[in-house]
Queue: 2 jobs
Job 1
Amino acid sequence: MNSQPVSFHRRISKALADSQLRLALGRTTERFTAKRAAGLASLPDVDAVRDRARAIRLHTLSRLDTYLEQFEAAVTAAGGQVHWAADAKEASAIVLDLARAQSVERVVKSKSMVSEEVALNETLIGAGLDVVESDLGEYIIQLAGETPSHIIAPAVHKTREQVGQLLAEKLGVPVTDDVGEMTATARSVLRDVFLRADMGVSGVNFGVAATGSLAIVTNEGNASLAVTAPRIHVAMMGIERLVPNLDDLAVMLQILARSATGQKLTVYTDLLTGPRRGDPDGPEELHVVLVDNGRSRLVGTEVGEILACIRCGACLNACPVYQQIGGHAYGSVYSGPVGAVLTPSLDTEGPWGTLPDASSLCGACREACPVRIDIPRMLLALRARSVRAGTADRAVRVGFRLYRWAATRPWLFRRAVAAARWLTELLSADGWLHRLPPPLSGWTRSRDFPVIASRTFSERMRDRAEGAK
Amino acid sequence: MSDSRAAILSRIRSGRAGQPESPAAPPVAPVPAGVPKTTALVDRFVQEAECVGAVVHRATRDGAIDLVGRLLVDAGVRRLVSWEPDDLPIPEALDAAVDRGIQLVEPSLPDGVEPLDRDWTTMAAADAGLTGAAGGLADTGTVILRSGLGRARLTWLLPPLHLVLLHAPFIYPTLPAFISARGELVGRSSHVAFVTGPSRTADIEQTLTIGVHGPKVVQIVLVERDREPAPESVAGDRIDG
């Protein structure tokens, strides 16, 4: 995963100061949220479908090893080849080896978060291959030399004017702010890329264990073209992306598009089973790369439930923190609430200890999640873990230790509260403290601190008890 | 590589050890007895397909033969790429279109196990693609397309106009209903596509734009049962089934 050297707090401050970004985010997340609500409402008995979808995911994870073996056998029986990658390096190496063995020069990619996770493009481009992203949003950020800032809308952070400028600069077309014109430009450039590519690399939304089928969805049709025109199709998937059978797949597809964009079904929902069988087009070879990269370690742990995620992006749009800071501030491939759990869990060595702090634990993500993943519970578990491991911020650790010391000594606690009340009343004009002095300044960097109540809870209880006598 | 396989599976197994297995999801409920009558189903299909930007033409079988050519001519189509006539729900429609002066490009794409030459330029230059649907989904306005001998996938992907023929009795209420009735079709084709409207994107400022990589226009000719008996099998079943 690409780590960024700047601290999380610095990235947050930068994002908050970017008024363009906040405007773009505000509009998009609001629109996504409204569309999702309408999309789910169009499903009769949506709660039952979500319960069923959750049951399917949890069941699959609870016997993931068996389903992986079944899936491998089914893909092989359909004429495909399965490769197992323990980590990011191995995953990229497998694809590069395939490309070299087949004298591949040009690769066309359709959007795949797992390929971002393993930094596949870096490896392939570094080896001299020509790699082009074909999802419009991914193409834009590839031209800009950036990374995606949203699971399903990678260029959400860019305004139309910025995109028009970028296309003019990189492709030599006239500057425009007409989205239709920009799209037509991308269509004509990428059309050639599809037709000339030797290898198409895609992600996978769901793998079906019983049949070895891959479900891949796009609205643009870019995945359909990328897995049809080139002679080799490489599908990269996380090991957790399975469902047992086609009936289960149908349930998942009913909620995926609705939760992601509010559509009832994604425009192109492709079910691919093996390479072409004598048909006049389609790939000669199908390779499925199963990527672990930290996932298997999570099975059966307190954060294992995050493996049920179907990457719809609904929790990002629902999250009040994501709405303010956007995806890049997280600094990791996966952003938002799901990223705050997934990133530090998959990459335990990385600088991700503070990501789980970027949440008010309001529960909007759990509410929005189509498979009802309890993200707040896991954020708390990760926070507790970093305290136990001693990697939490020093001020936080010392502060809570002091608090515990005082809170377990009632006489001391009462005196401390009285002192704090006097001090906070002294410092505040409006009932809130907007800036505390060090070492407490960390608290007020992103939130206000209330003045201590004039009568504390225990004082009021004591008054009541005395009044009742 | 096999080392990684063993390592991954063993890590999963040790994580699972001592954990209860989560029960399998209950089987998908069979399509309820009160399935909407076919006319209601067809109406719903038309409404949903139009809602996602497809154009639907309802026709009788005889009407459809002529309609296909007329629609293509009206759209200014000169070069057409098509599935083999026997893979179209109405094989005569193709000849009727050719009779109107439409040129058939790539008249027979090479089927077979020999590697293909993969020169798609002629196909990419076609103005329209003609296919036949293996089914439709009423609640989403979706047409279902299956690859196979005589049924190139690029037909519904490359040209700017996709014209698809669909028999009304092949319309199912929902995706789960189709899968539970005709799921075996999925394993029989290497590519089964559920296509819901024309290609679209909202990647720039969430502004909806139609026709980014796939067709800009999807026209569905819906063939309703008139004087002929209901078809016995799904379009394209002669292949690899």
Note: Chain A has three domains: 9-42+315-392, 45-293, 394-468.
Job 2
Amino acid sequence: MTRQEVLDLYFMDARSKLIDLAAFLDRIERATGEADFRFEAFKRALDLLSAENASKARGVLMSLSDPTIEPIAKAPGKGACGAWPGASVH
Amino acid sequence: MRYIEPHGHMVSRTTDDYEKMVLAGCAAVCEPAFWAGFDRSGVEGFYDYFCQLTDYEPKRAARFGLPHYCWLCINPKESEDVLLAAGVLEIIPQFMDRPNVLGIGEIGLNKNTRNEIQILERHIDLAARHDQLILVHTPHLEDKFKGTRLILDALQADKRINPGRVIIDHCEEHTIEMVLDAGFWAGITLYPESKTTPARAVDMYELYGQQNIWLNSACDWGKSDPLAVPKTALEMRRRGHSTETIDKLIFQNPARFMSQNPRFQLK
């Protein structure tokens, strides 16, 4: 597809998601108390969006991922939270 | 339009969903064993679940003329308990000869623990000894990249495993390339929040080749859409993909993979 065609198909959807994202960040700013590691991870991922390459989705996913290779000793639970806590201490 | 739902947890869906899927063109549904949303209390719970997958659920699907197939295992969310997992592994062979069983799955990892890897390796061994197809679940969110690497290591360490007989599911932009490069099939799962949207799925299809990829909804008891595959077909149509290209991705590809087990038949 041409860039024009991509814009015609997806601009309104992306615009809507962009405003939702901005409103989410505003909501955090207005809220009280301390944020946890997820917010820092989120902001690091946001920085990747201005990169001039065509692998931003991959970059965002990697920035939120556990990059280590060793299995862990015991499961801390069953769920995942969407960001790797270890990134904030490395 | 015709399509195959190669990964749907139909025990968690209503009969209405079967009807909607058939009306949308579903020609077969395949159901991997998974976590029920709670931990089963013992091996007997899995025995009943495997009876449900191999006896009751095919009958429910048949009311709509829909062939139903399944995969057997203990899901990685429960394999942290190695004693329970060992007991479940012992009863799986007695279900393998049932007519709708396609292979072992969805095995894999959840939190990437040593116990999970031990049970993954035992499932791989079980599949190899019984010459079964394998369907692999990759972990969620921040655990997916690491888990996919560990899963590839475990599969490649067993020289009996032919990558062309293994589908590694729930791939995303940061994992699909390593899966395809290693010769395995890649599954892309369409979820409303996690995993991928139809637009991202079509991006990956366009970027990473059009051979060994399938799409699935993985519809279950959580937020999920049993019509996600046909909705992605519409997304492809919006981008100008041909009817043949769409048919290849949502019908021919899953049929080609699962037909490696001769039990898989389309009416």
Note: The first helix of chain A runs from residue 3 to 30.
